[in-house]
Specification:
7 helices, 52% helix, single chain, 181 residues, mainly alpha, globular, two-stranded antiparallel ribbon, 2 strands
């Protein structure tokens, strides 16, 4: 009988031991990287984000699915608005030369859609709230990120357009309170 270093007998094996498993597969180590192997990698060109293209394609795809005469999908409109501050950062970081323009064109297109819905008396209060919240978020982001201060002009232009849709008191839309930070 073998004993442990303390001269104690080892614990007996459990009565129900698990079935033996397959032996572990040998681990392969990653290939070594050398200076010559680095030249064989293919460089992928990543396209910058483009909020304008995203907004346009989202609505075109929606119209194709729902039919040309379908009403504007305000749920989709609200989702696009909720992404505006993220695209503000992504567009301007990934494309410093054109990012501000692609972001503003997309954001402005959404606001123009809201104005059209208002004129047709189809604008939901939830959509108006989403637009107001998006303006607030974009305003905060453009002030917080170095180099985006100039984007506040675009947010200001869009916010002025939205403000013209509000009731006379400037705080409600069709008698219901609108999101204000």
């Amino acid at each position: 009988m073998s004993t442990t270093p303390d001269n104690q007998s080892p614990d007996p094996a459990p009565e129900h031991s698990p079935a033996p498993s397959a032996p572990p597969s040998p681990r392969r180590s990653p290939p070594a990287i050398s200076a010559t192997s680095l030249t064989s990698f293919t460089v992928l060109e990543v396209q910058p984000t483009n909020y304008s293209r995203f907004v346009t394609s989202a609505f075109l795809n929606s119209r194709r699915r729902r039919g040309e005469q379908a009403r504007v999908d305000q749920d989709l409109l609200r989702r696009c608005l909720s992404l505006s501050s993220s695209y503000l950062i992504a567009d301007t970081c990934m494309d410093p030369e054109h990012g501000v323009n692609t972001w503003f064109n997309g954001f402005n297109a959404l606001i123009e859609t809201i104005i059209a819905l208002h004129k047709k008396e189809e604008l939901d209060i939830e959509t108006m709230n989403a637009a107001s919240k998006a303006c607030s978020e974009c305003w905060s982001v453009s002030g917080a990120w170095r180099g985006l201060e100039g984007c506040r002009d675009g947010v200001r232009k869009v916010a002025r357009k939205l403000k013209t849709l509000l009731d006379e008191n400037g705080r409600t839309y069709q008698g219901q309170r609108v999101y204000a930070p």
